[in-house]
Design the sequence.
C-alpha cells in the first residue's frame, strides 16, 4: 500500500508531516528515507507540530536521539526522533537501544533507517522523500502492513494543501 504526494516547498513538507501526525498512535514507527537535504527533518518537525510538541525540534544528528512529550488523539505520548546517519555498523543501533523506543506509548521517527534495517519492525511506515534544494519533492508513503492501508487512504483523501 502506498500513497504519493508532491511537495513544492518546505512548508508543504512540514504540513504533510503535520497531517500524518493526526493518523499516528502509540507504537507506530516511521522510517524517514531520503538524501541529504531532502526534507526528512522538516517532515519530522511537521509531525511534532501535529503531536503538539512544544518548543523547537531539531535534527538529532550529533546526539542521535531526541525525545519529546506530546499528544496523539487526546492521549499523552512520547515522540522519539532518531537520526542514524552517523552510525557505521548495524550493531550500533542495538547499542543505542533503538528497540527500546518501539513501545505502545511512543511514536518513533527514524532518519537514515537503512543501517538499522534488521532491528526495525515489519509493520513500520516508510516515508521516502525524493528531491533536494529548491526542487519539488515527491513523497512516497508506504507500508507492507495492511493495518496502514485505511490510515493512508484517509490521509490521501483528506489532505489539506
Sequence:
Amino acid at each position: 500500500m502506498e500513497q504519493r504526494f508532491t511537495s513544492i516547498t518546505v512548508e508543504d513538507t512540514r504540513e504533510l508531516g503535520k497531517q500524518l501526525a493526526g493518523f499516528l498512535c502509540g507504537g507506530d514507527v516511521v522510517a524517514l528515507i531520503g538524501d541529504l537535504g531532502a526534507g526528512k527533518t522538516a517532515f519530522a518537525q511537521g509531525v511534532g507540530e501535529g503531536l503538539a510538541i512544544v518548543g523547537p525540534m531539531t535534527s538529532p544528528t550529533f546526539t542521535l536521539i531526541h525525545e519529546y512529550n506530546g499528544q496523539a488523539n487526546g492521549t499523552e505520548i512520547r515522540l522519539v526522533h532518531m537520526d542514524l546517519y552517523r552510525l557505521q555498523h548495524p550493531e550500533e543501533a542495538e547499542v543505542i537501544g533503538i528497540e527500546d523506543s518501539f513501545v505502545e506509548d511512543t511514536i518513533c521517527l527514524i532518519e537514515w533507517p537503512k543501517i538499522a534495517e534488521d532491528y526495525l519492525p515489519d509493520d513500520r511506515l516508510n516515508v521516502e522523500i525524493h528531491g533536494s534544494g529548491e526542487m519539488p519533492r515527491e513523497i512516497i508513503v508506504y507500508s507492507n502492513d495492511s493495518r496502514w492501508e485505511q490510515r493512508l487512504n484517509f490521509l490521501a483523501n483528506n489532505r489539506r494543501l
User: Anything to note?
Assistant: Helices lie at 10-21, 40-50, 91-95, 149-157. The two ends are 22 Å apart (CA to CA).
